[in-house]
Amino acid sequence: MNIMLKIFLYIILISISLICILPFYFMIVCATQSSFNTATLQAIFPGNEFLNNFDRLIHIVPVFSAFKNSIVVTIPATLLSAFFGSLTAYGFAKYKFIGKNYLFSLLFISLIVPQQICFIGFYKVCTFFNITNTLLPLIIPSIANPLFVFL
């Protein structure tokens, strides 16, 4: 390969990587600046307001409660999805039954259907079972995730 072509490719790749890193850099800069500097976009270099901003964040937004809710939802959802997905995959792989190909095709086609289509019906079911203000409606839909069958 020509040396000039290599230099040109490296310049292109370095500039693309800098463009990809730029939002993270500005996130760090904004986290270390005062609200005024962040709102007026006057900050280019990191400032010294990080601890004040973090203290305000902890007192205004329930961050640790959100982390706890995330853990309470993701761990059971992932474990249950992996469990039921592996059971389904084992059934499709080892057993021969009538309609196996039809059900497998239906499972494969269900990957195409967006989950947003089912929101209203699922909300009605959650209202019927009186679980609307709990974390269960976030865990239950992930149990029937067809993607885990193929993993």
Q: Please tell me the total number of domains.
A: 2
Rg, Å, rounded:
25 Å
**Residues in helices, as a percent range:** over 70%
Terminal Cα separation, in Å?
A: 40 Å
Transmembrane segments: 7-28, 71-90, 102-122, 128-150
Keywords: Cell membrane, Membrane, Transmembrane, Transmembrane helix, Transport
Domain ABC transmembrane type-1: 67-151
Membrane topology: Multi-pass membrane protein
Short description:
The protein is 72% helix and 0% strand.
Which short descriptors sum up this protein?
151 residues, mainly alpha
Walk me through this protein's architecture.
InterPro entries: MetI-like, MetI-like_sf. Its main location: membrane. This is ABC transmembrane type-1 domain-containing protein. It comes from Pseudobacteroides cellulosolvens ATCC 35603 = DSM 2933. Residues 67-151 form the ABC transmembrane type-1 domain. This protein has helices at 3-31, 35-39, 50-60, 63-94, 100-109, 119-128, 136-143, 147-150. It is flat. The mean pLDDT is 89. The longest helix has 32 residues, at 63-94. It folds into 2 domains: 3-60, no CATH class; 63-150, no CATH class. It is built from 8 helices and no strands. α4 (63-94) runs parallel beside α7. The two termini are 40 Å apart. Helix content is 72%, strand content 0%. With 151 residues, the protein is mainly α.
